[in-house]
Write a structure and sequence with these properties.
Number of domains: 2
CATH class of the largest domain: Alpha Beta
CATH topology of the largest domain: Rossmann fold
Shape: globular
CATH superfamily of the largest domain: Vaccinia Virus protein VP39
Strand order of the largest sheet: 9-8-7-10-11-13-12
Structural class: alpha/beta
Radius of gyration: 22 Å
Number of helices: 19
């Protein structure tokens, strides 16, 4: 999956706190969380008015430490046939700080306020799903055209040049293999699974991940003897499954920690002679292959480099070969609005990343001489995958603390997983498996 930035250096890994000791927010590691922005009372008041008015119109319960806040405060919504339905709540521990951050930094401030512990929810993904579903209603229509005046531009340091891409990948994927193991299943697969039905238990996740991988390998026609290129190794599970089919796999990653563990897993499986794990930028691919597979890697490429990415896919493919991609997608208009914007996700989770639209994938593929042969979406499967990850992560707080990750980091990742789950639950995001083939000359 695809991405934290201001707290690089392994995301503020600190010595584990003693039990019962309050966790101090380290201003050196979390400068924009430890200190409130300098925004004045006018901006805070405007934010409180606009956000408060928007919250009143949503099926939420907003509370403060002293009682109901600017929301409806009824506690329940009534369904037609099912009776009372529990609303997600938003509990403001420090309303002034909450509105001050939003007034100064918009949605980045909203996320930083959660990291700072200034608000909570008894149903974080439910709350964020409501907000994502009504995202276009949160700002009054006359003010939407002023968006460029209050959103920050992406910093130039996040560009995915060869050097920048290595740093961006390092800041997320080299955090700690042990950290990822606290919430991923034993296959260490960090992308959407494909389930046969719901509800599914965490114990079903390895099988669902294998189902996803096998479907991608089938779409790419990977069989005994296939020369396969994988762009984005992860921790090696897809390469292992392809090699077990008899394929010879060249797999690329920019993550040193992922490469080390993937190689160890491949050696342990006795498949080292069939898989070559390379620390290599996709732009430096050499040779041609019968099939190419890339799972949720395009989101880390950046729009500026999508032409290079699709050109690499095309030139790496032998005549008659097939490309199978798995990609998170969003609507084209939303993608355009996000492309140049510095968001909470780009600041703290995936620096340099951008989720493409289906249209962007199709157009860039066509420009590179590729045809879209099939395109299948399964958003509800990603929502459930993220739910299982989040539940596993929150149940592993002590382990995460023992690994040296502080409370701010843990709240950051809880918010990130819930935020992502909400994106798929609301259908603001989708995830798709796309097959590309060489476009026939006219």
């Amino acid at each position: 999956m695809t991405h934290p930035a201001t707290a690089s250096d392994h995301q503020a890994r600190l010595p584990g706190p003693r039990a019962g000791t309050p966790q101090r927010t380290d201003p050196a590691r979390w400068p924009d969380v430890a200190r409130l922005p300098a925004g004045g009372p006018v901006r805070t008041a405007v934010a409180a008015h606009l956000v408060g008015r928007a919250l009143k119109q949503l099926p939420l319960d907003v509370r403060t430490a002293t009682g109901p806040g600017p929301g409806p405060g009824t506690g329940h919504a009534t369904g037609r046939a099912t009776g009372p339905i529990r609303r997600p709540d938003l509990t403001l521990h420090d309303p002034d700080a909450f509105f001050r951050r939003i007034g100064s930094h918009g949605l980045i401030g909203f996320g930083e306020s959660y990291m700072a512990g200034e608000w909570d929810s008894d149903d974080l993904p439910g709350l964020l799903t409501v907000l994502a579903t009504h995202v276009d209603e949160l700002v009054p229509a006359p003010l939407r055209g002023l968006r460029p005046l209050w959103v920050a531009a992406r910093p130039g340091r996040d560009r995915n040049t060869r050097r920048g891409a290595r740093e961006n990948i390092h800041r997320h994927y080299d955090l700690s293999n042990d950290l990822f193991a606290t919430f991923l299943d034993p296959t260490l697969t960090y992308s959407s699974a494909v389930f046969t039905g719901f509800p599914a238990r965490f114990e079903d996740l390895p099988a669902a991940q294998h189902r996803k991988i096998d479907r991608l390998l089938d779409l790419a026609h990977v069989t005994d003897g296939t020369e396969l290129l994988e762009i984005g190794t992860g921790w090696g599970e897809l390469a292992l499954r392809a090699a077990a089919r008899g394929a010879r796999v060249t797999t690329l990653t920019l993550s040193t920690e992922q490469a080390e563990l993937a190689r160890a897993r491949i050696r342990a499986a006795g498949l080292g002679d069939r898989v070559d794990v390379r620390l290599c930028d996709y732009r430096d691919v050499e040779g041609r292959y019968d099939a190419v597979v890339s799972v949720e890697m395009i989101e880390a490429v950046g729009a500026e480099y999508w032409p290079s990415y699709f050109a690499t896919l095309r030139t790496a493919l032998r005549p008659g070969g097939r490309i199978a991609l798995q990609s998170i997608t969003m609507g084209h208009r939303q993608m355009q609005n996000t492309a140049a914007t510095h968001t909470w996700i780009s600041k703290y989770v995936f620096p340099g990343g951008l989720i493409p639209s289906r249209r962007a994938i199709t157009e860039h593929a066509a420009a590179a001489g590729l045809r879209t042969e099939s395109d299948l979406g399964f958003a509800e499967h990603y929502a459930h995958t993220l739910r299982l990850w989040r539940e596993r992560f929150t149940a592993s707080r002590q382990t995460v603390t023992d690994l040296g990750f502080d409370t701010v980091f843990q709240r950051l990742w809880e918010f990130y997983l819930a935020y992502s789950e909400a994106g798929f639950r609301s259908r603001y995001l989708d995830v798709r498996q796309v097959v590309l083939t060489e476009r026939s000359p006219r």
